[in-house]
Design goal:
single chain, 154 residues, alpha/beta, five-stranded mixed β-sheet, 4 helices, 7 strands, elongated
Length: 154
């Protein structure tokens, strides 16, 4: 058995260097990141658990980030994710109104209220909003299937 020279001389003669990029690991990493973002994105919406009512109304387009006012099942008030007391409510609304005093439009308020709440509780909060001059209030609800609602034309 004859040897045809040193192994280093045989190694690189007939092959060109590989210039292609292996994209399979890149695709794997991107799919994992996509799944992570799809799972975590709904959790970042809001931190106050509220059972919202259902409606067939279409959604609103929000240009700027609105202030989110939430009332939970127990009647607790939250501005964004921070809990406030009923006594502090007028002062906090006055702060929000004064922070947007020089702007042409009043600040957008999203009101999220639990379905188990008394209607009077929600109306008292809306009255405080009106008294502070915060009149651009949107009531937040969840979407409803059109098949669940009958129009009585049978």
């Amino acid at each position: 058995m004859a040897m045809s020279g040193p192994p280093s001389a045989r190694r690189g003669r007939g092959r060109a260097p590989m210039a292609d990029i292996n994209v399979t690991p890149l695709v794997d990493v991107m799919l994992v990141l996509l799944i992570i973002f799809m799972v975590t994105a709904p959790l970042l919406v809001t931190g106050v658990p509220v059972n919202l009512p259902e409606t067939r109304a279409k959604g609103l387009d929000a240009d700027a980030k609105p202030t989110i006012l939430s009332i939970d099942r127990d009647g607790g008030l939250f501005i964004d994710d921070m809990q406030i007391s009923d006594a502090d409510l007028p002062d906090r609304f006055a702060e929000i109104a004064s922070a947007h005093a020089g702007q042409p439009e009043p600040p957008q308020i999203f009101l999220r209220a639990d379905t188990a709440l008394d209607y009077g509780r929600v109306m008292r909060v809306m009255g405080e909003l009106n008294r502070a001059g915060l009149n651009k209030v949107s009531l937040v609800s969840t979407g409803s299937d059109a098949a669940d609602v009958s129009d009585g034309s049978e």
